[in-house]
Design goal:
binds NADP nicotinamide-adenine-dinucleotide phosphate; 27% strand; 6 helices; 312 residues; 5-stranded parallel β-sheet; 2 domains
Length: 312
């Protein structure tokens, strides 16, 4: 049986791993579908303390991983589908294996949201629709693309795409960006980026080969419908927490976020089970806050474990 099982290898999970490993708890980290979490799809992280020139997301996660393994963290690729937290030994089930642990730290993060319009899924991944400019931007060199969304992610994606693309139409459903002021200004000042305000995408349009050729849009203020030609459709409309395995077991809010309990940011309703990062935090959602929550969960778990007497 494991002392500590950590789900996820984003900032929260790997920070929890560093702390529990340094506490000699020999944590097992289960790495799900997106190793390294969302930062691995980010180009430059400018607001993580300690990096005055910024740091690239992939490099930061690689360093966290090395730091965690240096103190004895073990990592395994597996995705937990179901859990049983009814007894003192917590059970986690993947498609092929059952894991047992005393402490569980859930840091499963969140996944990019889709719009839910015709053509989106058909052209997702390789045919023009994507949620990751860092991963796919270079495929759209000298082409026109659209970015959908008005938050920091949308601005970051649009700015990154200026390195490759001829023109980026930033389609936002309101007439003001949600992004931080500095990011919004940088985006609106860029001569390759054209905002398309008060507009929603109603369909992703396919060419004769089934690849994206543009989007059908509607202006929500005037009702006017039109098309915007684009080879790439980059979606940046927020995220959905990865909490499905905990439905019916732990408290989730109406958007699927784990609800922290007992005047804590990281405790769940089950003693010994903690949650950290974007699967529980829908307010701050930063790399540094996820790391902070990972640290909190690790310290809580370590203290709780020290108070327990297990028979095995
Ligand atoms: P977000 O802040 O939730 O923004 C989502 C955007 O998508 C909003 O503009 C929203 O419109 C729009 N949207 C949501 N659902 C939509 C739909 N169905 N159709 C059309 N538009 C839709 O998400 P995010 O940009 O991914 O950022 C998440 C968090 O990460 C934030 O806290 C952000 O500050 C942080 N972040 C930071 C950085 C950085 O600092 N480098 C980079 C990326 C993200 P409304 O505005 O109308 O709601």
């Amino acid at each position: 049986m494991e002392n500590v099982i950590i789900l996820g290898t984003g900032c929260a999970g790997l920070t929890a791993a560093i702390y529990t490993a340094r506490a000699n708890l020999n944590p097992l980290v289960l790495e799900g579908g997106q190793p390294g979490g969302q930062l691995t799809t980010t180009s430059e992280v400018e607001n993580f303390p300690g990096f005055p020139e910024g740091v690239d997301g992939f490099g930061l996660m690689d360093n966290l991983r090395k730091q965690a393994s240096r103190f004895g963290t073990r990592t395994q690729y597996d995705t937990v589908e179901r859990v049983d937290f009814s007894g003192p030994v917590k059970k986690l089930y993947s498609s092929s294996k059952t894991y047992e642990g005393r402490v569980v730290i859930i840091s499963t993060g969140a996944s990019p949201r889709l719009i839910g319009v015709p053509g989106e899924m058909e052209m997702f991944g390789g045919k023009g629709v994507t949620t990751c400019a860092t991963c796919d931007g270079a495929f759209y060199r000298d082409m026109d693309v659209v970015v959908v969304g008005g938050g920091d992610s949308a601005c970051e994606e649009a700015l990154f795409l200026t390195r490759f693309c001829s023109k980026i139409s930033l389609i936002h459903r309101r007439d003001e960006l949600r992004a931080s002021k500095i990011m919004a200004q940088r985006t609106l000042d860029h001569d390759k980026i054209s905002p398309v305000w008060n507009t929603v995408v109603e369909e992703v349009l396919a060419d004769e080969e089934g690849k994206a050729r543009g989007v059908a849009v509607r202006n929500v203020a005037t009702g006017e419908k039109s098309e915007i030609a684009a080879r790439g459709v980059f979606l940046a409309i927020g995220h959905t927490p990865n909490t499905k395995p905990f439905e019916g077991v732990l408290d989730l809010d109406e958007n699927g976020y784990l609800v922290p309990q007992n005047n804590s940011m990281v405790r769940t309703s089950i003693p010994g089970v903690y949650a950290a990062g974007d699967c529980v935090d829908h307010v701050y959602r930063q790399a540094i806050t996820a790391a902070g929550m990972g640290c909190q969960a690790a310290i809580e778990g370590e203290r709780w474990l020290a108070e327990q007497s297990f028979s095995g």
